[in-house]
Amino acid sequence: VLALAPNARKIPVGKRSGQVSADQAFINRLLVASAREGGVVVRLKGGDPMIFGRAHEEILACANASIDVEVVPGITAASAAAAHLGASLTMRGVARSVVFVTPTVAKNGEHDDAWADAAFASQTVAIYMGAREAQRVMHALVSRGTPLTHPVVLVQDAGRPEAHHKAGCLNDLPELAGNLGAGPVILLLGDVFADVMTSTNQVPHELARHA
Amino acid sequence: VLALAPNARKIPVGKRSGQVSADQAFINRLLVASAREGGVVVRLKGGDPMIFGRAHEEILACANASIDVEVVPGITAASAAAAHLGASLTMRGVARSVVFVTPTVAKNGEHDDAWADAAFASQTVAIYMGAREAQRVMHALVSRGTPLTHPVVLVQDAGRPEAHHKAGCLNDLPELAGNLGAGPVILLLGDVFADVMTSTNQVPHELARHA
Prior knowledge:
Two copies of one chain form a homodimer. Chain A is of the alpha+beta class.
């Protein structure tokens, strides 16, 4: 996308798990100030801005400053991970529901496992920003009744050329999450991933290449 | 996308709600037969193929015929609808979970309202292929405990230039769904849509234009 705008002024405000990055309020102010200078401001994000993308804060900041906003949807990490694996999130006869949840909470630091109720009630689950809390994620799901043998896949750098994954069952989650690189990780759970867990024979070459 | 392939042979196999369209088994055979003729076969779909897109059947048919498959992810209707509305599906402090479900079932015709458990447990809900069964959807959600005042938005033709929406509360759902056009409809529920229901002042121009 950046290659399409060779003359744009680029201001990186990227976030990385566990690292210091631009504060959201600073980003909001920067968006508004840049728009007031005139010209078109693009706030470029990875994934889909409307799914765990903080779009709301930025849209509201612009709306309060009477700045018109257009949202361009993107490929959320769960879709990118499904394409990487060659595994549908809603396989007919296996899953008619897929939930995207996050176990992380904002700076007030309060932990709340209501997300696990949503995860338990849905047949396919994509957990965003949960790899660093694999132990807590596993305990919350098991306490709801998810079996330890439930299929789990971790996809790192979903949507990027360097995407790769590890598969196992819920019992393996803390171990699988233990030695990952720096890129963002999405945790996937559900019977739709049973083939990823047990075989690489009936899946597309993308998977075989990374297995 | 079609404009990028002026020399491709195009075979329409599209589906439309409630209309006769190409049978899935026929599509699978056509994919395999076309690939065996040589060349590259593209199965172009709207939305994301891995979310209520029947990708699994087609991937499996190709895998069983030893045909390599690469899946390109797409913008699922819920993401397109969120962009259209300017409403995040996971607003911080309001929703940490969003579920995509469908109340429809395959040809055996059996109705099963387990999807409603997943919908009730999640803070934001996107219901695919549910507008024709608005009454049943409403009853299933109310029976789980969703209040009749819960915000509801119906977005028709999400992701297309002609996208438009109607907003109300769960109690209005059958009426809102009653007089829709022919295009696909996604039902959205959740407190993240409260602003769509009650105001058009603080939302982007996309919304104001269609309101």
